[in-house]
Design brief:
- The protein contains 13 helices and no strands.
- The radius of gyration is 21 Å and the shape is globular.
- Helix 1 runs antiparallel to helix 11, helix 4 runs antiparallel to helix 8 and helix 7 runs parallel beside helix 12.
- It is mainly alpha-helical.
- It is found in: Membrane.
């Protein structure tokens, strides 16, 4: 876990930023998933539109970007990398994000919700491998314990899902869905590690504005790719009919898409923020934790049933979350100890 850029912050300030980003990720993802479910329940069926709204809400991020811009001038980091390097990073990551979103859409189309969720939980295992080789992430017993417990929690929730899978799906399409979801989970884990590597080795900035810039510019690229796919596939021709046939009405159709786009951006800021503040593995652990939090939101919003298995899964997720948080606390204390010793020695020498 590399929190070196934030060692200048006070202990409680750093943890406050981490807590804020955890809230953004959990609340944003839960809301986005529920809105996405509402979209399909009310008659929406465009895969490319569902892909587009995951990144199309990036304009709202210009507001906090402009508010945080003055503080970014106080950064003591080295000169910014060349524009061509930044453009290449944003283009590659943005294109990968678009592909990842589409793979998830294809997987959910051909798999049942429970099978889909179980496969999605494998992103933690993929991220553990990528973090080890790309980000030099060290593993301890607490981290492994957290990964295992959270994976079991996600699997329990998936098994307890009462919804039935799509009917009429052939073995060939099932295989496509399985490979698409597995590939999307691996690609998502790779994206987190690549973002962390970009922050550490290329961007090297010490302000949160770099997090917003990363999210905005990659979302621009991903949205452009999704728009091209929307028109190339011909799905745009059915959007007007889809709006007219939306059970909740045209206004609700538009508002559903708008708020889905916004909540996905809130979630993405939390994801990228945790990568910048802590690590890609930590961000992925919190993302997996949301698989246990989302049923609570569904219980309130859609009156879903909360059985004993889901309660146990949520308790497991909280235990895994606490295990990882405690490990991060130990690492954070160890990282700050040399700086504290230096300050104490200076104070003693001045006396």
């Amino acid at each position: 876990m590399d929190s070196a850029p934030f060692l200048k912050l006070k202990h409680w300030q750093w943890w406050a930023l981490v807590a804020i980003n955890i809230f953004f990720l959990l609340a944003g993802q839960a809301a986005a998933v529920l809105l996405g479910r509402f979209y399909y329940d009310q008659g929406g069926n465009s895969k490319w539109m569902a892909t587009l709204v995951q990144t199309a809400g990036f304009p709202v991020l210009f507001i906090p970007l402009f508010l945080l811009r003055p503080s970014s001038e106080a950064s003591t980091s080295s000169t910014s990398p060349p524009i061509r390097v930044l453009a290449l990073i944003y283009f590659v990551i943005g294109a990968l994000v678009a592909g990842d979103n589409m793979l998830y859409s294809v997987g959910l189309l051909y798999l049942s919700a429970s099978t889909y969720s179980i496969i999605c939980a494998t992103q933690l295992a993929f991220n553990a491998v990528f973090s080890y080789f790309i980000n030099s992430q060290k593993f301890t017993a607490l981290i492994l314990n957290s990964v295992v417990i959270l994976s079991l929690s996600a699997a329990l929730i998936a098994v307890s899902d009462d919804s039935e899978g799509p009917s009429g799906v052939s073995k060939g399409k099932f295989l496509i869905g399985f490979l698409s979801t597995l590939g999307a989970s691996a690609l998502y884990a790779l994206l987190l590690s690549l973002m962390q590597l970009s922050f550490q080795k290329v961007l090297k900035k010490e302000t949160f504005s770099v997090v917003l810039e990363m999210q905005i510019y990659t979302s621009v690229v991903a949205s452009c790719v999704a728009v091209v796919g929307l028109f190339a596939s011909g799905e745009w021709k059915s959007l007007q009919h889809e709006m007219q046939g939306f059970d909740a009405g045209r206004v609700s159709y538009v508002l559903t898409l708008v708020w889905t786009a916004i909540t996905w951006q809130v979630c993405a800021v939390g994801v990228v923020g945790l990568i910048f503040l802590v690590s890609s593995l930590f961000s992925n652990v919190i993302s997996t934790l949301s698989l246990a939090v989302t049923p609570l939101a569904a219980l309130v919003g859609f009156h879903d049933k909360m059985n004993g298995v889901k309660v146990i899964a949520m308790l497991l997720a909280l235990c895994g979350f606490a295990s990882y948080i405690y490990q991060n606390y130990l690492d954070d204390t160890k990282a700050r100890r040399p700086e504290t010793d230096v300050r104490e020695s200076r104070d003693n020498s001045s006396c």
